[in-house]
Amino acid sequence: MVVVMSPGATDEDIANVVSRVESVGGEAFVSKGVVRTIIGLVGDIDSFHHLNLRTLPGVADVRRISDPYKLVSRQHHPDRSTVWVGRPGHQVPIGPDTFTFIAGPCAVESAEQTLESARMAQSAGATILRGGAFKPRTSPYAFQGLGRAGLEILADVSGATGLPICTEVVDARDVPMVAEHADMLQIGTRNMANFGLLQAAGESGKPVLLKRGMTATIEEWLMAAEYIARRGNLDVVLCERGIRTFEPATRNTLDISAVPVVQATSHLPIIVDPSHAAGRKDLIVPLSRAAIAVGADGVIVDVHPDPESALCDGPQALNGRDLRDLASAVRHLPAAVGRADASTLTRG
Ligand code: PEP
Ligand code: MN
User: Which atom of ligand 1 lies nearest, measured to the CA of 135?
Assistant: First the structure.
């Protein structure tokens, strides 16, 4: 942390900062320039925060030079992490060596629709099935999901296909129930800053897919991941799903640069959701290609056996033929960026 003194700061102001820093066990290194003095602080950053140094006379600015998040930062964990998803005997990796393909319906609507979606996903090479039983809808009048019955359908479909399940949880009180049925808990864009939910997911014992808040900065997103990690759960996968901008041509704007920016600062895996970013199925192939090329650790896409009748997000859902087209359009790309296909790598 660095304290920048204002040009008019007196020797007394400088000494005051130094003595406060020393009072909490820190060290202060004073560097006097012609116009300004800066003071470098070494020690426990949290105790410096409590000093409210910015309020002291003569202080112009206080700047952090280390990341505000710790557990998810690469500063203390330089190697990028792999998160394994699934049950003992069949776990699928999401991480830097592989490319993981996740697909499934936006919402679980029925046992048949979910099983059919899962078969479509599996035959296209997906290794994890997504599907919402609890749907956080913008409108309270829109389909809200089947709830617990949807979780049971997902568990049955997982049993029938062997695919691990990723499903959203929207209420901290539901975390134990969702964790009992699912292999990975999704926290959606609308709940990225629901800190009680993040903490509950941190105690769930299951990997978490943390979507980026639609108006969140990368730093806010990583701080949200830190809430989960602080509860002892480092199995967090980040998901870039588009952010709100002024551009109405797509549902959201896919921030493709978030992938390498996150990878430079955090060890957590990061995947891309082109479906919720674009809101249009015609963009799924090019955005998936972009995601692989930029170095994402996977993609997650919406599929539906009959998108016209989907109860949620039909316009962005791929049908069976679209999904096969997507799989063949991207098939050779992971190898071109040095990644193995995650479907060939499972662990017991
Ligand atoms: C979803 O994946 O079903 C979903 C609702 O996504 P998001 O939270 O990114 O809108
Ligand atoms: Mn959706």
Answer: 5
